[in-house]
Amino acid sequence: MSSAKKSDRLWTWLLLPGTLWMSVFFVSALALVVALSFGRTDELGNPRFSNTLENIRGILEWTYLRVIIRSLVYSVSATAICLLISYPVAYVIARHGGRYRNALVALIVIPFFANYLVRMYGWQTLLSDDGVVMKRLRDLGVSSDFHILDTAGAVIGGLVYGYIVFMVLPVYASLQRMDGSLIEAGRDLYGSPLRTFLTVTVPATRAGAYAGIVLVFLPAMGDFISAQLLGGPDNLMIGNLIQDKFFAGQNWPLGAALTMTLMLLLLVCMFAYLRQTARDSREAAR
Amino acid sequence: MTRAPYVSRRGLFKAAGASAALLGAASACAYVNPPGPRALPKKKIVPKVDGDLVYFNWADYVHPKVLKGFKAEYGVDIIQSNFDSMEGMAAKLAAGNRYDVIFPSAQWVQKLDAANQLYPIDHSVLDNAAAIFDYYDYFADPWYDPKSAHSIPFTMYKTGVAWRKDKLGDQLTGSWNDLWNDTANGHTFLLDDRDEVLGMGALLLGLDLNTADGDDLDQIVDKIDSLRPYLRAFSSDDFNNLLSGDAWLTQAWSGDLAAVIWEADDPSLYAFESPSEGSPVNTDTYAIPSNAQHPGTALLFIDYMLRPENVEKNINYIGYPMPVHGTEAVYDELMAPFPACKVTVDDLGEDLYFTNHGVDDTRARDDAYTRIKVG
Questions:
Q1: Which domain CATH number covers B87?
Q2: A167 in Cβ contact with A216 (< 8 Å)
Q3: Residue from the list A12, A32, A233 with its beta carbon closest to the beta carbon of B28
Q4: Which DSSP string corresponds to B327-349?
Q5: Would you say residue B114 has pLDDT above 80?
Q6: Which pLDDT belongs to residue B258?
C-alpha cells in the first residue's frame, strides 16, 4: 500500500471525532427543532411530537410577520452601520498602523473577551435615565424627556457594538492582503483619492466586506439580548418571540416553527452570499 | 493492493446523518413517551440524612447563613443550582434531572402534582409544621394542593403598583388605572409576565382574573393597547428599573419593593399600593420531586428551614412574609414603615390567584399576550 493512501486513511480517522461531535450536538439538535415544529404540547407544557401544521399556520399572522420585518430592518441597519464604521477603522490600521498594527487589532478584540450579555448589561447601566451618560447630556442642556435606553436606536446600537468585531477583522484582513502598489497605480493614473478608493480599494477588498456582512447580519437577525435589555415595547425582535415561546409561553412547537422560519430566511441570505463570492472568484480567475 | 477505506464526502455526510438520526431519536424519546402520570413513589419518607442535599431554587432566596447552618449541623453538603423561571425549573425536571428540594409556586405545585412528580409529605413527621398548619387555616387546605399533602408553604407575595413619590406625588388613587399617568409617560413599566399583565387588564375590566375567553381576551388586549403609548418596556426586573431611575411607575411585586426600599439611598422616594380592583396573590412552596435521591435529607432540610430562628433570618434577608407562627412580629417590624407592601394571609383569602389552564386555553392566553407585547 502506498504511503499516500496510508495518510488518506489517517486523515479520515482524524475527521471522525469532529464529524461525530457535529452530528451529535448540531445536526441532531437541528433535526429535533425541525421535528418539533410539527409538534404539540401536553398539559404540563412539555413538547410532544406530532404531525400538525398548526404551528406553521400560527406564524403566518400579521403579529409575527411584523416582528420578522422589524428584525430585518434592525439587522440590515446594524450591518450597514458596522460596515461604515469598520471600513475606515480597518483602513487606518491596515495602511497606517505601522508597527502598532497588531496592538491596534488586539485593542479592538479585547472588549469582546467579555461575555456579550455582560456588555449589554453594562450599556443598560450606562444609558439608564439616571446613568452617567444621560446625566452629562442633561448638564449640556438636552431635554429631560430625551432618553436613549428602550429605543430602536439603542437596540441597533447594541447590535452594532455586539457584532462589529466580526466586520472589522475580515475587512482588515482583506485590506492588509491588498497590494499597496495598486493604490499608487491608481494615483499615478490621476485618480483622485476618492476615485482611487472607490474603483481600486473597494473592489479589491469586497470579499472581506461580504464576509463581514454575513458574519454580522446572521447573528444580529437572531439576537434577542439587545432588544430585551436595551429595547422598549416597540422594539421586540424575532429572537425575543422565539425565547418567549420556549420559556414563559411553554409552547416549544411554535418556538421551533419560528426558529425554522428564521433559519430559512437566513439560508436565502447565505445562498445570495455564496453565489456572489463564487461569481467574484470566477471573475478574479479570468 | 487492498482498497484503502477512503471515505468520500458523500459517505461522510451519510454517516453523519445516520448517527444524528439515531441520537436525535434517542433524545427525542423524552418527547414521545406518553405524557401520562408517573408511578407514585410508594416509599414513605422520614426526615433522616440519606445523602447530600441537591437544592434547586431561585438565586438568593434563602439566607446563606441558614444554608451554612444546615451543612454544619447535619454534616451534609448542599449541592446548589438555580432556576430563573418556573418554566425553566419544569423543563429541567422534565429532562430527568434529579433534585431533592425545589421551590415551586402554587400553580406549579398543582401541575407537578397532577403529573405525580412530587412526594407526598406527611406533616406529622415534621417537628415544626404545626407552627404553619395549626395557625394558618388557609394552608391547611389550599386550592393548589389539597391538604398541602405535597408541599409546605414558604413565602407569600402580591402584585400592585409602585411609584416614585418625588415624581408623581405621595398618593395615587389606589386603582390599576393609576398606570395611565401622563406625568410618568415614557417611565411606565409593566411586568413581563403573561398572567400578571392579562390579570391586571381583567381586574380593570371586571372580568375573571384567569379568563381564556376570546372576547374577554380581545377586550383586555384593547385595554392594554391604550397603555402602550405610556410604556417604556415590559420588564420583570422591577427592582432594578426603580433603582436606576428608568421607572417612575411600574406594576410590581410586593417583595421586590421591600427590597428596593432597603437598597435605595433615599427610601422615602418609593411607594406601593394594592389597587382596589384587586391584587393577585401567590405563594412559593417547598416540595420534593418524586425522583429525588435523598428525600430524607430534603425533609430534614424543610423541617430545619421552618425553625423560627431560621424563618426570621430568611424574612430579614428576602423581605417576604412566611406563614410560620411566632415570626409575624419580625415581619411586622420590618414592614412598619411601608404598610402597603405588607402581605398577610388575609390577602390570600381574597381568592385572587392565577390558575392553570389546559393546552388550548393556555395557547389563547399566550397569543393574546404576544399581541399585547408586539402591539
A1: 3.40.190.10
A2: yes
A3: A32
A4: -HHHHHHHHTT-GGG---HHHHH
A5: yes
A6: 82
Give the mean pLDDT of B183-208. Answer: 95
Closest-CA distance, B182 to chain A, in angstroms, reads: 13
Distances from the Cα of B246 to the Cα of A32, A129, B196, angstroms: 41, 5, 20
A vs B, Cβ pairs < 8 A, gives 146
- For chain B, say whether A51 makes contact (Cβ under 8 Å): no
Average pLDDT over residues A112-118: 92
Same domain, B247 and B169: yes
B175 and B225 share a domain?
yes
Residues B110, B163 within the same domain:
no
DSSP B207-255: --TT---HHHHHHHHHHHHTTGGGEEEE-S-HHHHHHTTS-SEEEEEHH
Residue B325 included in any domain? no
Which H or E run includes A116? helix A116-127
Q: A32 to chain B: which residues are within 8 Å by CB? A: 24, 27-28
Same structural domain for residues B256 and B240? yes
pLDDT at B64 over 90: yes
Chain B environment of A28 (Cβ under 8 Å): 20-21, 23-24, 27
Q: Is residue B78 part of a domain?
A: yes
pLDDT digits (tens, 9 = 90+) for B286-307: 999 999 999 999 999 999 999 9
Which of A32, A67, A236 lies at the smallest CB-CB distance from B27?
A32
Residue pair B212/B365 in contact by the 8 Å Cβ criterion: yes
Give the pairing type, strands B152-164 and B249-253: antiparallel
Instruction: Spell out which residues of chain A touch residue B221, defining contact as CB-CB under 8 Å.
Output: none
pLDDT tens profile B312-326: 999 988 889 999 999
How many H-runs (helices) and E-runs (strands) does chain B carry?
16, 9
30-49 of A, contacting B, C-beta below 8 A: 31-32, 35-36, 39-49
Domain range holding B301?
A: 53-151+287-306
A233 vs B: CB within 8 A: yes
Number of domains chain B contains: 2
User: A10: nearest CA in chain B?
Assistant: B6
B218 lies in some domain: yes
Q: What's the rounded mean pLDDT across residues B234-240?
A: 89
Instruction: Look at residue A2 in the predicted model and tell me its pLDDT.
Output: 58
- Which residues of A fall within a CB distance of 8 Å from B83? none
Q: Are residues B80 and B106 in the same domain?
A: yes
* Mutate which: A150, A229, A242, A252, vs B, most B CBs within 10 A: A150
Region for B177 from its dihedrals, namely left if φ exceeds 0, alpha if ψ lies in -120 to 50, beta otherwise: alpha
Q: Which of B28, B90, B245 faces A35 most closely, judged by CB atoms?
A: B28
Would an 8 Å CB–CB cutoff place A122 in contact with chain B? no
Q: Does A192 touch chain B (CB under 8 A)?
A: no
> Do B185 and B246 fall into the same domain?
yes
The pTM for the full model equals 0.83
Mean per-residue pLDDT for A106-135?
A: 91
Q: List, for residues B3-17, the tens digit of each pLDDT value.
A: 444 455 555 556 555
- CATH architecture of the region A61-285: Orthogonal Bundle (1.10)
B329 assigned to some structural domain:
no
